[in-house]
Structures are given as C-alpha cells and as structure tokens.
Amino acid sequence: MRNLWLIKLRKISQTFFILILILTPVFQVIRVYRQDPFPYRESFLASNFFNAILTEIDKPLRNFLSHFYDDLSGGPYSLKIWFLKMVEPMSSAFAIIRNLFVPEYWTWILAMSFLLPLLIAFLFGRIYCGYVCPMSTITHLHLRLRKRFKKAEPGYSATALKPLSTKRKIFISILFLVLFMNPILIAYILPPALMQHSVSDFILYGGFSLWGLMLCLVFIFEWIKPAYFCRKICPTGLFLTFLGKYRRFSLVHVPHVKCEAGCHLCNEVCWLGLNPKTRENDPACDLCQRCVMVCPQHRLKAGKASAILGDRPRIAKLAFKKGQKGLLVLKQSSSLTFFIKKVRGCGTAPSSPFCPLSRISGKI
Amino acid sequence: MNKKEPAFKRKYFLWGVITLFLAFLGKVFSKAFLWLPSKGANFDYLRPPGASKDETLFLLKCIRCRACANVCEAGCIRFFTFLENPAYAGTPYLIPRIKACNLCMNCTQICPTGALSEIPDVKEEIYERVDMGKAFVLESACLSYNGRVCGVCRDACPLKDRAITLKPVAKPVVHEEYCIGCGRCEERCPQLPAAILVRREKTYA
Asked: Residue B173 phi/psi, 5° resolution?
C-alpha cells in the first residue's frame, strides 16, 4: 500500500505555511485598525478603499475571527499557534550554542524549538524541508512548470549523491562558522526568513527591503539552476541532512519486489536529485513521497530503516526467530558503510569477521 | 558486539567537546562579528518593553524574527534597515513621536529568544518592570512653563499623577522612579518640536 496520508499531510502543511506567510501581516493590519486606522502609512493596505471595507466588516470580523488571529502569528521563520511557539531549527540551534555559557539567554521556547526538530531529524530526517519550508513549495511549483512548458526534466536527476569533496567540506565549514559567529547573516540567507520578512515588509510598511532583494536573487538562481539552492547551499538543509544520517524512519525497498526493466521513474521524479532506485535510507531524503507515488511495482515505501538493523542485533535476532525474512534483507546503504568504515575499521567487504552485518547475514 | 560501545561513547564525547569549543568561540567572537559603531542610528529611538539596557546583549539575543511587529496592538514597532546600520538590521525599535507604545505586552509574550523578557499583562508588573526610557521636560519649549496652561502630557500618561505631576500652574514635573518610558506624553505633546522627550539616555537639556 502507498502511504497516501503522508502526501496529504505534506500538501496541507505546505499550503498552510504559504497561506500564513501572506495572512499574518494582513491580520496584523486588521488588529491594529481597531486602535488606529492609519498606523502603517506607506502600506497599500492603508488606503481609503481598504479602510472603507474594514469599517463595514469590522464587527463581524471581531466576532468570528478574533480568536483566530489572536492565536496565529508569525510565519515559517518564527511561528506561534495558540500556545505553541517555534523558531526555525538551525537559527535556534546557533543561538543556543552561541549562548551556552550564558544561561540567562536561554528560554524554554528556544530550547524546545532546537530539541524538537533535533528529535524529528533523528526520527524522520530532513522532513522540515519537504513539509514546512515555503522554498520547497516554490521549487516544486517551478519544476512542475518546467515540465509542463519546457517538457524537460531537471538535468541533475538520476545521479547518485556524491560523497563530499574537500572543496565542499571547506565551503560548508566556512559557511557554518560565519553563520554561527554572526547573529545577523542567518536572517539574510534562510529562505523562510527572507520570505516572511519581505512579505511583511511589503504588506505592513509598503515597500521592498534588502530581504526582498535577496529573495529575488534566490529566485533568479532558482530559475537558472532548479533546486540547486535547496540541495547544496541552504544551511538548514545541510544541518538536517547531517543529522539525518542516524534517522530511523526513511525510504525503504520492499523486499522480494523487483523493478521493471529499465524503469527509473523514481529517479526522474526526485526533486533533490537523489537515487531512490538503488539507495534507500538516504540522509538527504525529505520523505516527499513522490517516488512512492510514481513507482509502478509498489517497491518503494516509507518506513523504518532496515539498514539500522545492522546496529541493532537484538531486533534482527527477534526477527530471525519470528521468521520474518523481510526484515533481514540487509543492504549496505551509505550510512552503514560509513559507520563501518569509520568506527569498526573494516572495509565494505561483507565477509569481514569484524563486521556485525556479515555475522547476521551469515546466519541467514 | 560489546566492543562497539566504547567507540560510540568516544564519538559522542568528541561531539560534545566540539560543541563546547564552538560555544566558547561563539561567546568570545560573536561580539567582534557585530559591527558596532558608537551610535546605533542617526536618530533617537526606543527599544520595545522588556529589552535589556545593554545594546550588545540585545543584539546578541535577538534573532531578527519580527514576531513582535506581528502582534503589536499599537502598530508602533518598526525595524532598522541594512542601510541604517547593518548590525542593527531587523531589530525592533519605536519612535514615540510617530507612534507610542500601548503597553499591551504582546511583544514580550511572543518573543521566542528572551531578547524581550516576558512581562505579564498585569498593571503592577508593567509599572515595575517596564523601563524603555525616561521622560524629561524641555522647560524652554514647554507651553506651561511659558505662561500658558496645557497639561496634555499628564493626561496622556498611563501613570497619571505618579510619573508626571503638575505643579501650579499646570507645569509638568517628571518623577523618574515611576516613569516607564512608553512615550505617550511625547506623542501627544502639542508643541512642535515636542517639549517633553522620552529617551534612553539624557542627550538634551
């Protein structure tokens, strides 16, 4: 069975975050209107027309919507729903680590908005990118338009993610250090912050700022190289990918199901340029479920990562006792080989006696 | 199987050491990365209620998320742009002469970082803990000190007859121990330019 509810969840959350991006500044204008009709003088919403409409509908708005816009404010960068307050995970992480020795800077909101995404990243990996970030929504839209009008797939797809070269390692470390040291720059790079700031600038204060300019640059870059920003540059994506190495819930190949000959629809459809046909449990996967939808053989599935069984022999033994062969089909995915190479000191060869994986597979 | 555990522990210990080292670096160098000219901007401004008096601390705490402007009932909160001062860009301020604070305390309750410390919407708490600035009267410009009767600032003040009292005839006197610096007196002052100013530091008179 395909997990259709996950796709529905993704679509609902994406539309929700795009909507609040635009609606919260408008709510703010309405909220302020009760006190003063012209607080934001440069805004196009502070026109006579808008005020005339507001005078007509202010009372019903007050009656029906007051709870709604008391309980919802912010945007994808910093959100408040009812009592729940969340900040973008990486900026909160940086703020917490930077102020580690100054406990009075800590707030439980910052800590929670750091720890909850951390937990989510350990469970589901890079789910923030696919489900919350409005940049991914725009990238999806762009790719669909490209397919519709240019009849062309993005050039990067169906290629496996290469291991990090030294150049990229240096780039990433410099980027992270600069962003970590500087409390300003992060708001000028992250797309959710850019969008929230530029939209609220436009609606509340009636103009474009440097955030709008940066957003335009990001969009132009997106037009030239589709999805390159999300794949290679976005620091939050890199951060979550790094955490997603140890994830428990990921894309899994259903055992004993073979692909159709020559079919690589899943690779074509993947917007992050991953290789779901041969690589399950990829740390960069954001569980967008496109490949799952497309697969004609129902071979792909979102579930518990089978590769982790290598690290958890007890579960593997249990499965062996119960005779669930499906759980014992172990594949050497990237994270596992990385783990074995780094920690155990043995190579990729499954016959090595030091490798726990080979022991289990030997029992089979 | 048991041999694996010490390797794991060593790995996590290393990560912990790296995090602590980064935190140390951040504490030492993050102030250096803030480009701080002696003055924030070429105009006078107030920070929203609950902000710390030390500007560097405030800049380090604030993550520029703009949540405060999205809940402000008075619509008084504005933001520094990059051109005014790159280090201050995106941080909230207000100019009381344009729009004064309403003391609704929404911004302090929504701030996720503690840059604006949380203050409940209770009269006594607000009077105690809010300290945005202090008002002071320019006696040479004030109407009441120049032979007329005004007293608008006293009527505008939320701490009527405590922060601003009138001595005969209708001459305003500011008591700094009560003044919370909301800026309503400056907003309502009929003189042009305002004869009563609210500033974080006493720069005039």
From this structure: -130, 130
